[in-house]
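Question thread 4412

I'm putting together a teaching handout and wanted feedback from people who do this every day. The idea is simple: show students a protein as raw sequence, then show them the structure tokens that encode its fold, then repeat with a second protein so they can compare. Below is the first pair exactly as I plan to print it.
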Amino acid sequence: MTALPVSYMKAIRHLTGFWAAYPLSQELAPGAYGRRVEGRFVADGHLSDLPGWDPDALATAQAPARAPADAWLSDGVSVERLAVSADGPALPAAGRIRLRFSQAEQAAFACRNGREWAFAGLRRVKEHLIRLYRDGHWDHRDILITHVLRTDAAWLFYSSRSGQSVDLGVSVAPGPAAAADLLKAAIGGGDAEIGYSGVASSGYSSTLNGPATPLFQAIRIRRVPAVSAEIVVKGAGPFEEPSFGDPEDG
């Protein structure tokens, strides 16, 4: 596995507060658990497979959509509007925009109808993990997915070096707007579709044209829990957020 695709996970975490799934189309859900393998999350199962599962106490809930569309771009990413030419690519587009990346390891992410799907009570989940750990059913290396961003469509671009760009075709002619707002209009419009005509150099791009779970948050036990499980609600306690996107860390 090359470092390029995996490293976009860190760039998206910096922009959105969520880790990006690898691949972006990876199916994730609160309660999925697994390990970090070569910098990415690899699922092994679900909490419901382990002893003591209580679907009521460990229930999940989905929030309403944050907005019709969301978009995040790294600082230094610029945008320009392009005219559609007769000899241009065959895209279902009334307009085109080009994103330019001034540095390596910059990213742009946009999604439609993003809504958070998470455990309703994280404290109970942490207490359950401690019990599993003490009973020998949980390993400190195990990672639990706690939050997921569900989307109806999503798009990501990540630059491997400076000077890269990507052209986006949109089904509505883009008007004057900031780069993030143009991405929102492109992916959030009622019948708008987004696609890319080409990626300069060797940047990485991924498009999801249907329901998906491209972003997530997770926890793991960072040390042996104290005798009392009450510690889980006092500060960080025995839990930490695992990191992703560094293949050398394993």
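The second pair follows. I'd like the answer to focus on this one:
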Amino acid sequence: MKKIQKKYVRNYYAIAILINVVLPVLSMIYVIGNRKGEAQMGYFIIGIWGLICIFVYSIYFAIPDFNKNWEKVAGLLFPTILLSLALIKYWNFALVILLNLIMNGFFIWHLTKKTFHNNVYN
């Protein structure tokens, strides 16, 4: 993978993990706090969700080179499509799916813009 693409993909991975893991964990800490009992099930659910997101968004690194535009789109959208298929049964997660689609749409736009800009001017 080109050096510039590696940098951007690493940044996209960090943002995806921040949005899908860190923010939900901080929200759960704020909402649940130090309570005992069934409330702690939220930590378990968010922990499982975090592991799933870390694994699924690692797919960003699975494609060695994004040489064509369709590869960029496929490589960046595949994790969200995979999560969407896992969550489609639960309509409560529609907002999560929509936010991930928006986030990956921004990633695709940014990567194609930056790599095209660098290819033209280098």
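Top answer:
Good format. For the second protein you could add a caption like this: The chain has a mean pLDDT of 76. The first helix runs from residue 3 to 32.
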